[in-house]
Specification:
2 copies of one chain form a homodimer. Chain A has 444 residues and is α/β, with parallel strands linked by helices. Chain A has 2 domains: 16-45 and 87-119 and 273-344, FAD/NAD(P)-binding domain (3-Layer(bba) Sandwich), CATH 3.50.50; 125-270 and 365-437, FAD/NAD(P)-binding domain, CATH 3.50.50. Chain A is built from 12 helices and 25 strands. Chain A has helices at 24-32, 55-59, 72-75, 125-130, 137-154, 160-167, 176-196, 222-234, 326-344, 381-394, 398-414, 432-440, and strands at 16-20, 39-43, 48-50, 69-71, 82-85, 91-93, 98-101, 104-107, 110-113, 117-119, 169-172, 207-210, 237-240, 245-248, 252-255, 260-262, 265-268, 272-274, 285-286, 289-292, 304-306, 311-313, 359-364, 367-372, 376-379. In chain A, strands 5-2-1-9-21 form a 5-stranded parallel sheet, with no helix packed on it. Chain A has a 4-stranded parallel sheet with strand order 13-12-11-17. In chain A, helix 8 links the parallel strand 12 (207-210) and strand 13. In chain A, helix 1 (24-32) packs parallel to helix 9 (326-344). The radius of gyration of chain A is 23 Å and the shape is globular. The two termini of chain A are 32 Å apart. At the A-B interface, strand 4, helix 5, helix 11 and helix 12 of A face strand 4, helix 5, helix 11 and helix 12 of B.
Chain lengths: 444, 444
């Protein structure tokens, strides 16, 4: 608690719904909630919703940050009795039905945990300190800042080993984020970087994609994996499946096999863990996710729900819970938004049923893979069009759709990625050379 | 000097032109230079050119940062023997004809100082530490981050004096930057903020515009000043002319008159000073600018030129040098780019002559003032169209023109400013409450 501040949420006779997180889950929940029946209070640590599937394009200079985000106050500014607070929720007291923040305590009738997930480093603190996760806009801009600086420094170093290391990039985890980032980097290497840095030899730049399982895109079909791997290898991405990262010291990635890879930049997308709220009973948490019943209600609680990445709902189709993808969060948010009044009125409600609309991943220009409903698997240009269309369709707001669309047409025609600004002062603390140069350059 | 790095500029038989700064001056210089005749090396601390006249729109959530910038490597990537280094030039040795960087020494045949200007705090270190200048993109994003956070905190504080202070904004200096920022803030207050923060009473938010001289826009016509002041006051900006800031402690602005203004946010645009290169003779520097002759050559030197804000060229029309505006930098850059080969070949060259295309400032929707050539002064909607057209026309690159154009149309139709993301972790160090909240929110 910080003295002198309080949450200032008006008293109400309506039931109060407290939502933690304005991601896909929280946003779609509010869209469907009958806001005349409830008071809604949303908490988030960012003042904007992030369209996470396109973060990798912000990191690789394809898009501007504001194009894939929507201010959370703005989205519902026309709704009555909707309140946003830019605060982290610290804990819940299930017995008292209250949540705790630095600005004080708030009682709730319904609490919805939609806090999503963050990178899982599996306890490896070195990797956590030295690699780049890609889950938030500041993280994407930090990676962009790193990418735009390693080549600058590669151009002026006299140490050939350091030069090679600065130009190499290792991506750990070959899910959609790893695959899409690898593809975007391969295109930067082919079309953009050689023009920007004529002094550097980009045939010597290596992009490694390291995956623990036996295939890339392990959550997609075998067909998609095979096609994606073929495309990546055609684009000269070095794909290493069945490979586990054992350690990273900021310079050298050590694999479990004993093999080492020299890379100044490591992007970590090897797994996520739910952003769990403190105060929940430990037996309602499993593998970093909150166990919920078929109504999204947290096991062992009354009036607390969890949706999206942070929730784990066991079902016959998904014995270990649903995959941590946007569609699950969207559908759970929509389900809960439509049904919370029914829960409140104790009316019968059908259990949540996930409709798998399929999975997509883009690898590059005219290259994508898609698993569609009805066991339909496509690749290449048709899959790429589907990918483009779906991503535009799900972006928040017409302005964002238009701006992203224009950026993509522009990049497609010009083979350029124009958003290469270093606007975050990121230089890794262990990078002595980078730090020294940044210091004299007065990096802001 | 940092060990292990060097500039790695290839040796050449052509004369080497070293340019410090990729602003309006440096950029237009390279555009016009016959690049077959020279080797060109450009140094800048940013990897992008900034379109400074629109920085205030990035700060006030109207535009995205990448839309008003162009990567400096990219702009000339088709030019032979053009080299960019993301490094600060530390000093010049005029006798040896070399410049110094942390990556080593470089000889030049021609050195062009186009380093521009930075905020001048006139020795007031408190103001320097606690106020927001608006000369670079990181500075604009820091101001945006501050603006998006003061209202969040105002909504949760229990101290009425603190709440009032958090909502007030003082702008010091009523040149174009101060006037345009004041207008943009007044529109945010009118159209955007009350919807975003329904709990706050925006009739209590004060915007102060403080100017030392007797009128706003002192560099423009009396007509423009009068019209601009009337528009600003109609938009409820509190204009204080003949007022000098004596001090600021992070909470209270003290004026020389003894009057005080409570404001958590102070934007400083009260003056600039040239970014002077160390190593020049002291008698070639006056009032923070480098004295140049009518060929832009620095007085007392051979082969060193200065252009734009950092240069001061005495002439009958401008006895104290030209105004520090984009047009002067553009025209000097163009002049030098066209004539450097003639200087090199010792051919006769006409002196630089500044053609004043006029001055513009926008105050808000359909509101602007313009002093045009031929002593033509206009205001209101026609001036606003001229302003829009000129700013689009001078933006670098078709993509930027298009993106800014769409953002403007969007804002015009919706009365919304969509780019409200907090993407820089700015919280002022003396702001204890803000720091504490940021800490628990894990502000990235």
């Amino acid at each position: 608690m910080i003295a002198g501040i309080s949450l200032n949420i008006p008293d109400t006779t309506k039931p109060r719904v407290v939502i933690i997180g304005g991601g896909f889950g929280g946003l779609n929940l509010v869209k469907k909630l009958p806001l005349k029946e409830f008071q809604v209070v949303m908490f988030d640590k960012h003042n904007y919703h992030t369209f996470q599937p396109l973060l990798y394009q912000v990191a690789t200079a394809g898009l501007q940050p504001d194009s894939i985000a929507g201010p959370l106050r703005n989205v519902f500014s026309d709704k009555p009795d909707y309140h946003f607070r830019l605060l982290k929720v610290l804990s819940v007291n299930c017995a008292a039905k209250t949540i705790e923040t630095v600005a004080g305590t708030l009682s709730y009738d319904y609490l919805i945990i939609a806090s999503g997930s963050r990178a899982n480093f599996f306890g490896n603190t070195d990797v956590q300190k030295l690699s780049f996760p890609l889950k938030t806009i500041p993280e994407a801009l930090n990676l962009r800042s790193q990418l735009m600086q390693v080549f600058e420094i590669a151009g002026i170093t006299n140490d050939p080993a350091q030069k090679a290391r600065l130009m190499n990039i290792a991506l750990v985890g070959a899910g959609p984020t790893g695959v899409e980032t690898a593809g975007a980097l391969a295109e930067l290497r082919k079309y953009v970087l050689p023009k920007d840095y004529p002094d550097l030899d980009f045939t010597k730049m290596n992009i490694y994609l390291i995956e623990g399982s036996s295939r890339v895109l392990p959550s997609m079909s075998e067909y998609a994996s095979t096609k994606a791997k073929k495309s990546l290898e055609k684009m000269k991405v070095i794909v290493k499946t069945n490979s586990f990262v054992d350690g990273y010291d900021g310079k050298t990635v050590r694999l479990k096999s004993g093999e080492t890879i020299e890379a100044q930049t490591v992007v970590w997308s090897a797994g996520v863990t739910g952003d769990i709220l403190a105060g929940l009973a430990l037996d309602s948490i499993e593998h970093g996710r909150i166990l919920v019943d078929h109504h999204c209600e947290v096991l062992g609680t009354k009036g607390i729900y969890a949706i999206g990445d942070v929730a784990s709902m066991e079902s016959s189709d998904y014995p270990n819970g649903h995959p941590g993808v946007a569609q699950v969060a969207i559908q759970m948010g929509t389900y809960l938004g439509k049904n919370l009044l029914n829960f409140h009125l104790r009316l019968p409600v059908n259990p949540f049923k996930y409709f798998d609309k399929g999975s997509l991943a883009t690898i590059g220009r005219n290259k994508a893979v898609a698993d569609l409903p009805g066991n339909l698997h496509i690749a290449g240009r048709p899959a790429w069009y589907v990918w483009l269309f779906i991503h535009i369709a799900y972006l928040i707001g017409f302005r964002n759709k238009l701006l992203v669309f224009i950026n993509w047409i522009w990049s497609y025609i010009t083979y350029d990625q124009g958003n290469r600004l270093i606007i975050r002062p990121f230089i890794r603390k262990d990078d002595k050379l980078g730090q020294e140069i940044a210091l004299t350059n007065e990096l802001e």
